[in-house]
Specification:
Elements (H helix, E strand, L loop, with lengths): L1 E4 L7 E2 H8 L5 H9 L3 E3 L2 E3 L4 E2 L4 E4 L3 H4 L10 E4 L3 E6 L16 H8 L4 E2 L8 E7 L2 H12 L3 E10 L6 E11 L4 E5 L7 E13 L4 E8 L6 H8 L13 H7 L6 E8 L15 E3 L13
Parallel strand pairs: 10-16
Antiparallel strand pairs: 1-6, 2-5, 3-4, 3-6, 7-8, 8-10, 9-10, 11-15, 11-16, 12-13, 12-14, 14-15, 16-17
Amino acid sequence: MVNVIVNEKYDNKKIVNFILSEFPNLSYSYLYKALRKKDILVNGKRINSNINIKKSDNITIYIADDILYGNQNTINLDIVYEDKNILILNKPTGISVLKDNSNSKTSFSDIVNNYCPNAKPCHRLDRNTSGLIIYAKNNDILEILLEKFKNREIEKYYKAVVYGIPKVKTAQMQAYLFKDNKKSIVYISNTFKKGYKKILTTYKILDTNKKLNISLLDINLGTGRTHQIRAHLAHIGLPILGDGKYGINSINKKFKEKHQLLTSYKIKFNFISDAKKLNYLNNKIFEIPVNYKYFNSIET
């Protein structure tokens, strides 16, 4: 438990923005989880929403220190949905779904398996991309979900902060992507080339900050290639803020963003064929709130 006093800068501002400014290593997902559980108090009163606060308000936060101050050796699972067949989790940034070439000895799946030993991921998120990921609890369910992902019967939606303001409010973009496995990077071409695969990326503008020259986008994928969102947006001149691989380092340093501001925020089950044991999930939507401090709208 920790107490902090609201300063003049955050008078009549949202509590989420204030807490994140005080504890920059705290993830959005754990902060919103604490709000949902009423683990945050304002002047002794428990709250469960992103309210406006006043100068000199006393904020009490019941979040473990290792999470509040960003000790990544301990990650508590943020379970969005669970039943006998699947787990839907909110993955934080800075940890890979499976072991990779980083220095980390622990993957997100290792942590998941401490909770559910046989659970396996049905899709991937980049190490520094946060948000929703589905795990199957047994091989039969994994096989069903892999088939549904392959047939585009599970829709994934992302929110991203990009540097620049698109000329059109919505766009469906087509290009071609080549993956260089040795360099762990992908390349985008507007025209087909040998070894390149077709990609489809759709976005719409949710908000803009013209003063900072940034935009908040809602993104849906027609194809699911490695690094597709990051590379495709960078290719059209809209690099994701904080992206160290496809972004602009000088811009990332200016905004002091070390991780890409990209979140998998919504999953929709849209089965058009028999899903066997998982038919009960058809048309269900799972969504998490996303807060990016640069915009007035907190939950869009």
